[in-house]
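Section 4.2 – Deliverable D4.2 (structural model, holo form)

The reporting period included a commitment to supply a predicted holo structure for the target in complex with zinc ion. Inputs used:
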Amino acid sequence: MKDFDEYIEKFEKIMKKYKIPRSKWTPQDEVVYSPKDPFRVPPKEAEELRFKALKYSFAHHYKNNTFYNKLCKEKGIKPDDIKKPSDLTKIPLIPDKFFKDYPEDGKSFAMWLSNIYTGKLPEIYIKKRNPKTEDVIDDFNTSGLTVTLSSGTSGRHTFIPRDADTIRRASYSIAKNVVSMLYPFWEYNMTMYKQTDPSGTNLWVGKSGAVITEIVKEARVGTKIKITPKMVRLSMGGARNFIERIESKIIRSIAKRHREKMIDDFINLLEEMEKRGTKLGLIVQPSFMNMIMKVLERRGLSFDFSENGAMLTGGGWKISENERIPHKEYRERVGKYLSIPEERILDVYGMVECNTGMIQCPEGHYLHIPYTQIYPMVLDENLEPKGYGEVGRFAFLEVTASSYPSFIITGDEVKLLEHCPVCDRPGPVLEPEIKRAKGEEVRGCAEEMRRLFSISED
Ligand SMILES: [Zn+2]
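Output (structure tokens):
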């Protein structure tokens, strides 16, 4: 694989600012920075790296996170109990809903954030007397931490505090996952279009993908509007009073005009790039691209990116859920309007609680898990782990987060397979069509978390 080695060497050179110097590596860094191809690490080696890192990470959060320490004590699990890989399932998991369960007023929110943060927060100076959630986030962000959030289809956000090293590991690994899967397409001299502007948002879907615009010479962004949590809530229909209902109307009408401009800009970009004949990568939400393709259909337009185009999709369909089409059908539509071959249309699956992402392989479009970093599990209704080949609730132990315990029960229903049925990469995969898990079964669990949390606030 000499060619691949050269390809990755080029990538390593431009990723300097995301690398933690080797002399400072902990096991949490080794899993990210040592593999050349995150999806082709020999399984035994990957398991050893991951086990060492999980032991390290679990001990770190056990020791330095007040809330998580209480949870572990309640469950009767301590770091010494994790002696061998089969003990990993004993590590207490946190339901993703927990990170949505924040108080509304700014001061209590700041307190809440400091409780879910692992370690000691830097002194945060909250400027306003009666701060809003947004003010607190801004103040956290100027102190060197980043509060990342999800867009939350329910209008309620998930907040995750990240320190600089946690972000560095996430950015590096997300970029490497993408570059490895797109081999040999990626090159520095290409143009990358990203639908959301990473600098103007704390949304993880925007922020985590920011790095992909930095591994190319030319980046274009679709929207430059700074999206605040309140805007997301209002646009999702979460207005709480008369004034907010008016605000939400205004936001919706601005958003409509803005969307029309984005569509025109996007089509202009396609025209320009097709003429130029150089490589173009597109990072888009499927719902956005679907909207573009409807416009192309109406205008009778199509483009030829059969040689020079690649597309990464992510973030799901969100509020356009009713328009969702299966991945295969989506790729066929992209093929029809942009001529991008299906091996270069890859979906990425991730979430704000997870410090890396899963990505489809070009051969079979199964979602490959970066398995030096993630210990994946599928849980039954009693939240007990099931085996490979079974459908259940997705849970994972992610090893690279140092600012919050990334041991999560998600709200997604998946099928986990030990190997990809199509390609020869050795690690575990998820079937590509992921659904929201039904049911209230995790609610009891969330109640338990809330109770633990109220104790830790005393
Ligand atoms: Zn595969």
